[in-house]
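Protocol step 4 of 5: obtain the predicted structure for the target chain.
Materials: sequence only (see below). No template structures provided, no constraints applied. The aim of this step is simply to have a reference model before the mutagenesis design in step 5. Sequence pasted as it appears in the construct record:
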Amino acid sequence: MALLFSPFTLKGVTLRNRIVMSPMTMYRSVDGHANDFHVMHMGARAAGGFGLLFPEQIAITPDGRTTVHCGGLYDDSQIAGWKRTTDLVKAMGGVSAIQLGHTGRKGSAVAPWEGGHQISADHPEGWTCKAPSAVPHGADHPHPVDELTVEEIKGIHEAYAAAAVRAVEAGYEWIEMHYAHGYLGASFFSPIANQRTDSYGGSLENRVRFHTEALDAVRSVIPERIPLTMRLGADDLHPAGATMDEAVAAISLMKEHGLDMADVSAGFNTPEMDGTPLGQPMGFLSRALRVKREVGIPVGVSWNLGVPANAERAVSEGLDLVFLGRPALANPHWPVWAARELGHESPFDLVPEDYGWWLKNFRGHAPSIGWPEPSTIDLDASAESSAQSTAAGVPQQARHQSTATAAH
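Step 4 output (structure tokens):
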């Protein structure tokens, strides 16, 4: 059996396979609440065979959202809606995970199909964003931001803890902290965004203090069996930004504060990135594997792992979890497709037993069942084509992918 379909255990939670639906902002919430859309979104992928499923970044405060249409767990009234999704995911054999975060200086925006740009505080749906320093993100996020006071930082840590308590009550069995993609955690880590001169800025240890204190706050209020992980913007891909060397050291510090796994991604702390691997198959895999080797912690990664053979190769090289964003949107049954591609002896065992019985007992014309026959993909040619397409720099779409950055 392909390693991609082997179980994975972390703390007191065992996943049926290594396939994760990555957090993706859907812009479907009203006042932070989940609704029928989220139940459909999560349930379909759980029935499709994903092992671990995130809805989206869930805001810990109202001003921690990207837009006013984003999900939150900053109020007790929001618990019931999200529990509808976790109940269904569990019934379908999956495990529900939640990514808690604060968008920081990339909040107060409109949906990406409306331009994705930031709106001013005097707009009916806008607000003044908070950040480590009074440094706007730039490009389509130009508006002034307020530097957080130390008291406000402590308040954010309390909000993380309160949201984590609500998450457990809502049925989540896995908690991830969002420290990537230009959001607040990423901003504190990056010298581009963090220009503070107090105990939260300057040295690497100071720039990671925000993260370790947030981890401490959450770990103290959740059951020990629940994994506590984080997604880190490990590389700003900019000469003045955070580097992989710093990321390895930072993750080592976080491990001392209860971190159980690292989900390695990009910083997105500036619209001007150099040498980006965003268009390359398995573009961040080498960074994640370095973290695993040097820190001794399980790792996950996303970015261009949607070809089943690439996902399997990544796990065979040591990756613990494969995060899929857009592939999960494109194909809610991606695990079944991958199983057929990789020669799984019984791909339809991945779906609920009623689905599986009918699919395994198909008596008609085999190609008409609705599943494509396994294909042969020239991975080397695919990699060469991707490299050529990004040789001139970051694609324009990726440069301005400021809101739905988890959907990869």
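Step 4 remarks: Confidence is low (pLDDT under 50) at residues 385-407. Residues 5 and 373 are 19 Å apart (CA to CA).
Proceed to step 5.
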